[in-house]
Amino acid sequence: MLLRFLQLWIMLRFACVSCAARQDPFAMHISCGARQNVQTKPTNTLWREDFGFTGGIAANATRPSFITPPLNTLRYFPLSEGPQNCYNINKVPKGHYSIRIFFGLVGRSKDTSEPLFDISIEGTQIYSLKPGWNKQNDQVFVEALVFLTNDSVSICFHSTGHGDPAILSIEIQQIDDKAYYFGPWWSQGIILRTVKRLSCGFGQSKFDVDYGGDSRGGDRFWQRIKTFGDESDQPRSVETRIKQASHPPNFYPETLYQSALVSTNNEPDLTYALEVDPNRNYSVWLHFAEIDNSVTAAGQRVFNIIINDDHAFKDVDIVELSGDIYTALVLNTTVTVNGRILTITLKPKEGNLAIINAIEIFEVIMVESKTISEEVSALQTLKKALGLPPRFGWNGDPCVPQQHPWFGVDCQLNKSSGSWIIDGL
Ligand SMILES: *[C@@H]1O[C@H](CO)[C@@H](O)[C@H](O)[C@H]1NC(C)=O
Ligand SMILES: *[C@@H]1O[C@H](CO)[C@@H](O)[C@H](O)[C@H]1NC(C)=O
Ligand SMILES: *[C@@H]1O[C@H](CO)[C@@H](O)[C@H](O)[C@H]1NC(C)=O
Ligand SMILES: *[C@@H]1O[C@H](CO)[C@@H](O)[C@H](O)[C@H]1NC(C)=O
Ligand SMILES: *[C@@H]1O[C@H](CO)[C@@H](O)[C@H](O)[C@H]1NC(C)=O
Fold this sequence. Notes:
By secondary structure, this protein is mainly beta.
């Protein structure tokens, strides 16, 4: 009896040492428009009831895609509620976050026309919805990796005259401080917006949680791509364990590396092309593991990687770089794209064929300067004192995003302090 008690005591002690050493990452899920907390299957995610919004109307929602969380409500913002509305969420500890917003369609009909609007986080515009978004699974949400430095976050929705912004859910999930570090240029002054995240080969589109991934990686959506083009490649998959997958700072799920696309003798190059917004910088992450049993040692498969005519990586030998077969290798690079197409080509040098497991592409966005906080508070006081109606929409930062300043406010950037000041009303 005493022995068992001792054993239990030792077990509990050890459990507590490890729980103190690893604090769980912060995570918050909000079900917009919901009057009470909601738990959804099969992941048992707990969604908090709606809070923190500056206006808008709660309504029943239509989910545009099967990947949209199974929630029944949303919040929408007709123009009578002002041209910009925000969620201001406090008590979010300083850190690095993945913020994801799912869009909804108002009402119970799929025919409802899709709204187009702009989204900003902490005053920086991160995205404009594109026509046809509700027909494409990976466009029914926007996701951005952001540093929060003020124990709070402000997420705003800006009308552009194409229907009422409608938001189904907001997720704020802490990730590693160094997640997606891409080199010296990377800093707290940038935001990475997910443009594309592809898992190559057989299978279904999935989230990290479906793959049994580590929550410290966030909960990424991996869209399945079965081919880059007709007969140019073939899928391959294995169940063999993959080494070095779930490592910091990005904690990729192991399953990601168990399937791949391999080029064919007909078409030895593997080429993926994506339409993008021109004149932006993109951070590209390429995932490999040698899972093809025709390659057993270093030197047997070597290829170059070309992105839009530039040699991004020369002589990539997965086995040599990762240290073994069935071992994960992640390469990243940052490219400026002037045109509308981003093309990634893998060109074999040794061995006839190229292989790739997954691709991630982010837009690199510079964080905007903010308006000095005394002036924001002064304007908010003025708004209350004057009893301005909601349709004025004085929410968020008065001067940024620069595309959507407050109505009736003149702003000027003070270049020496790097913040906006109110020049006049
Ligand atoms: C929302 O749906 C519920 C049933 O799911 C219904 O009782 C309610 O009336 C609906 N509300 C609106 C505004 O349509
Ligand atoms: C991304 O690549 C750069 C070199 O280009 C490297 O310094 C950095 O560590 C890489 N990031 C990760 C997370 O592997
Ligand atoms: C792209 O990156 C370069 C530096 O590499 C920078 O000078 C330029 O302003 C960036 N462009 C955009 C649109 O952020
Ligand atoms: C930080 O947040 C507090 C309240 O949440 C606000 O009063 C203050 O102005 C903010 N500071 C900056 C620099 O945004
Ligand atoms: C601009 O910022 C500088 C440095 O913070 C400050 O000394 C100056 O007064 C500011 N100018 C205006 C017009 O506010």
